C-alpha cells in the first residue's frame, strides 16, 4: 500500500453530514475574517474560520481557462478538467511501474494516429491497423486502472460535493469534508497537482466529443448561445467555446495536453480557499507541508488580443427544429470597472423578478414572450457581453420581441429609473450577495473566483457599498453608451422549413 493510501486509511473515520448553516459573513466584516498566506512558490491561501459545524469546504482554483488556449489547443482546459480525475502515479492505478510502459506504447501509437489522420493522402489501411493496435493496447491497460479513486477516498471520509468545472477564465476543484480530514485533502490534492497521469486519454477525448454533440450540437439553447458568442467577438478568444469545436477536440494531442498541464496547473496560478471549521495556523502548516515543495510553474500570460470596436450590428439565424428564441448581445466593460457594477443593477431592473421592466412589458402586459432573461457572458477577466434572451409566445415572432426589447432599452436610456426601482434592485443584489456567502462552499467559490478574475478577493467585501453608491444617472448613461443600435449582435433560433 503506497503512502497516500496509508494516509487515507489513517485519517479515515466516521462520516459527518455537511450542513451549510454557518453564521453568515457579512460584507462589513468579511475583510476582517479572511486571512491570507502566500507560499514561496506563489500559491495563495485564503482562510475563513467558521466553527459552527465540524466541516470545511475547499476550493482549488487555477487561473487558466479556455481564454488562455491557442488555435492549436482549443478545448484543452476542459479536457484536462476531465483528465485530472483519472488519478496520479499513486492513485487510480494498481501498479504504476507495470502500467507506465503500457501507457508509453499507447501514447506512441496514439501520436502516430493523430499525425497521420490529418494528412490528405493518409493510407486508410495503415490508419485502420494503428487504430486496431490502439484498441488492443487500451484493452490491456484496463487491468491496471482503478476507476474513480479520488471519489472513493473522499466518499469514504465523509466528503460531499466533489466536483470540478472549467470556465473561460479558470478551472476549479471542490469538495466539502469533515474538519479532521484537512491533511487527507491536502495530500490528495497536492499529489494531483504534481503527479497527475493522463491515463485513458484517447477514450476520454471521444467522451468529450460526445458531450459536445449532446450539449451543443443537438440542443437548441446550446447551439444558439455558442453561435451568439462566436459572432459577437471578432478577434478575442472569448469567441471560442469552452469545450472546443469538434475538430479541436479530435486533434488535441496527448503531448499538447501534457505541456499545457505542466506549464500552468501549478502553484503560481493557484488560489486555495478553505472555509469552515479549520484554524488559520493549522491551514498554513498543512498547505505548506503538502504544496510548498511543488515547483512554481509558469505564470499564465495575459491575453494580448483586444476586441475591436463593433463596426455595426451583426445578425445571424440558427436553423433548428425547435421553437424560436432570440438573444441580443452588447459589449461592455468587466470588473473591477465601475460600469460593470452598474450592469448588475441594469440586470436587476430589466429582469429581476415579476415587477422588472422587461418581464412586466414582454411577459405580463404585451404577452409577447413566455420568458426573458439577462446575464453577463462569457467570462470576467476581460471585457465581456451583456446578453438579453427571450422566448417568443406563439404566434408572436422573434422580430416582435426584439422590437419590444429595443423600446424598453430606449426608455431606460431616456430617463432615470425611479427611487423605488433602485431600492428594489440594490436590496435584491444585497440579499443574493449575502446568501451566496452564507454557505461555506459559496464563500470559498467566491473568494477564489474574485482573487483570480479581479485580482483581489476584497471585491466581495466592497461590493454592496459600491452598489449603494451608484446613481440613476449612471444607469441611464451606461445604457446610452453600451446598449445602443450599431453595437449589438442578434442571434435568432428559427425553425427549419420542412
Question: What can you tell me about this protein's structure?
Answer:
- There is one protein chain.
- This protein has 498 residues and is α+β, with helices and mostly antiparallel strands.
- It contains 19 helices and 11 strands.
- The chain has helices at residues 3-11, 27-33, 76-83, 96-117, 124-141, 149-156, 182-195, 201-217, 220-232, 246-251, 254-264, 280-291, 338-351, 357-365, 398-414, 419-438, 440-453, 459-469, 472-482, and strands at residues 34-38, 44-49, 55-62, 160-166, 171-178, 270-276, 314-320, 325-332, 369-377, 384-392, 488-495.
- Strands 1-2-6-3-5-4 form a 6-stranded mixed β-sheet, with helices on both faces. A 5-stranded mixed β-sheet has the order 7-11-8-10-9, sandwiched between helices.
- A hairpin with a 6-residue loop joins strand 9 and strand 10.
- Helix 16 (419-438) packs antiparallel against helix 18.
- It is globular, with a radius of gyration of 25 Å.
Number of distinct helices: 19
Strand order of the largest sheet: 1-2-6-3-5-4
Mean pLDDT: 93
Helix/strand structural class: alpha+beta
Q: Please state roughly what percent of the residues sit in beta strands, choosing from under 5%, 5-15%, 15-25%, 25-35%, 35-45% or over 45%.
A: 15-25%
Q: What is the chain-wise order of helices and strands?
A: HHEEEHHHHEEHHHHHEHEEHHEEHHHHHE
Tertiary shape: globular
> What separation lies between the terminal Cα atoms?
63 Å
For the sheet with most strands, the description reads: 6 strands, mixed
In terms of per-residue confidence, which ranges show pLDDT below 50 for 5 or more consecutive residues? 1-28
What integer value in Å does the Rg equal? Answer: 25 Å
What is the count of β-strands?
11
The helix content is 40-55%
Amino acid at each position: 500500500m503506497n503512502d497516500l493510501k496509508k494516509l487515507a486509511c489513517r485519517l479515515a473515520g466516521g462520516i459527518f453530514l455537511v450542513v451549510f448553516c454557518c453564521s453568515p459573513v457579512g460584507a462589513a466584516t468579511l475583510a476582517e475574517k479572511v486571512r491570507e498566506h502566500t507560499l514561496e512558490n506563489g500559491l495563495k491561501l485564503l482562510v475563513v474560520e467558521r466553527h459552527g459545524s465540524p466541516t470545511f469546504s475547499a476550493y482549488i482554483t487555477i487561473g487558466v481557462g479556455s481564454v488562455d488556449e491557442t488555435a492549436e489547443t482549443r478545448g484543452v482546459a476542459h479536457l484536462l478538467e476531465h483528465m485530472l480525475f483519472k488519478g496520479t502515479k499513486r492513485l487510480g492505478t494498481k501498479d504504476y511501474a507495470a502500467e507506465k510502459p503500457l501507457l508509453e506504447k499507447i501514447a506512441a501509437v496514439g501520436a502516430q494516429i493523430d499525425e497521420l489522420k490529418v494528412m490528405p493522402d493518409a493510407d486508410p489501411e495503415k490508419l485502420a491497423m494503428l487504430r486496431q493496435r490502439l484498441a488492443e493496447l487500451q484493452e490491456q491497460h484496463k487491468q491496471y486502472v482503478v476507476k474513480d479513486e479520488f471519489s472513493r477516498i473522499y466518499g469514504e471520509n465523509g466528503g460531499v460535493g466533489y466536483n470540478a468545472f472549467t470556465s473561460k477564465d479558470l478551472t476549479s476543484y471542490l469538495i466539502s469534508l469533515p474538519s479532521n480530514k484537512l491533511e487527507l485533502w491536502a495530500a490528495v490534492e497536492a499529489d494531483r497537482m504534481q503527479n497527475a497521469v493522463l491515463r485513458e486519454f484517447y477514450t476520454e477525448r471521444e467522451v468529450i466529443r460526445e458531450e459536445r454533440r449532446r450539449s451543443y450540437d443537438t440542443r437548441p439553447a446550446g447551439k444558439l448561445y455558442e453561435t451568439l458568442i462566436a459572432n459577437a467577438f471578432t478577434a478575442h478568444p472569448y469567441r471560442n467555446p469552452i469545450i472546443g469545436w469538434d475538430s479541436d477536440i479530435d486533434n488535441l494531442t496527448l503531448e499538447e495536453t501534457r505541456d499545457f498541464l505542466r506549464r500552468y496547473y501549478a502553484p503560481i496560478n493557484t488560489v486555495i480557499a478553505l472555509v469552515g471549521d479549520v484554524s488559520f495556523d493549522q491551514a498554513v502548516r498543512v498547505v505548506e507541508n503538502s504544496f510548498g515543495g511543488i515547483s512554481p510553474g509558469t505564470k499564465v500570460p495575459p491575453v494580448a488580443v483586444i476586441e475591436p470596436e463593433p463596426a455595426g450590428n451583426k445578425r445571424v439565424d440558427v436553423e433548428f427544429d425547435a421553437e424560436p428564441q432570440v438573444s441580443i448581445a452588447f459589449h461592455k466593460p468587466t470588473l473591477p470597472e465601475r460600469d460593470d457594477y452598474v450592469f448588475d443593477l441594469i440586470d436587476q431592473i430589466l429582469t429581476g423578478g415579476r415587477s422588472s421592466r422587461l418581464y412586466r412589458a414582454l411577459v405580463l402586459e404585451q404577452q409577447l414572450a413566455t420568458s426573458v432573461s439577462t446575464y453577463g457572458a462569457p467570462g470576467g477577466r476581460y471585457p465581456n457581453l451583456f446578453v438579453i434572451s427571450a422566448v417568443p409566445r406563439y404566434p408572436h415572432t422573434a422580430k416582435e420581441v426584439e422590437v419590444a426589447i429595443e423600446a424598453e432599452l430606449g426608455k431606460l436610456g431616456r430617463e432615470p429609473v425611479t427611487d423605488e426601482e433602485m431600492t428594489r434592485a440594490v436590496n435584491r443584489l444585497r440579499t443574493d450577495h449575502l446568501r451566496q456567502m452564507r454557505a461555506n462552499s459559496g464563500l470559498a467559490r467566491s473568494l477564489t473566483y474574485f482573487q483570480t478574475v479581479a485580482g483581489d478577493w476584497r471585491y466581495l467585501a466592497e461590493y454592496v457599498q459600491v452598489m449603494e453608491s451608484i446613481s440613476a444617472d449612471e444607469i441611464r448613461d451606461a445604457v446610452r453608451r453600451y446598449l445602443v443600435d450599431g453595437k449589438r449582435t442578434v442571434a435568432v433560433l428559427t425553425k427549419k422549413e420542412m
